[in-house]
Amino acid sequence: MTKPIPEGYHTLTTYLAVDDAEGAIDYYTRAFGAKELGRMPAPGGKIGHAELQIGDSHLMLADTFPGQSTRPPKELGGTSASLFLYVEDVDAVVQQAIDAGATVTMEVADQFWGDRFGTVTDPFGHVWSVATHIEDVPEEEMAERAKKAMAGMASS
């Protein structure tokens, strides 16, 4: 019997619109250790659909085409979403992403919620939040830490 959610997939999978899908596949392989699962060519040397795996998650992407509802960040002048990636060593992965061509959006640092966390923007305009969970923070302490952090943001 066919499974309604294919083997190896999660309920929610990210699908990115990119300029230069082939370049993006190369970048995500170098930056985040992605493994290419497959691709479908499209006219003009473009990629109509590709699937990658990063850790235990799938990432779908394609070049943009006229009439599509999704647009790449560079065409929009920014993005309304980011990708969140948990890894074993955030410092190493962020450095790897930088070495592959990302720019730092937020330096890696320990955060009040218990993650060591930073963000980068990839060469295609997508923002990646990368984290390693370093501490389980009790709910009451989380509320206090959040209050202090937000107070610090208001004064800056």
Automatic annotation (TrEMBL):
InterPro entries: Glyas_Bleomycin-R_OHBP_Dase (IPR029068), Glyas_Fos-R_dOase_dom (IPR004360), VOC_core (IPR037523). Pfam families: Glyoxalase. Residues 8-133 form the VOC domain. This is VOC family protein.
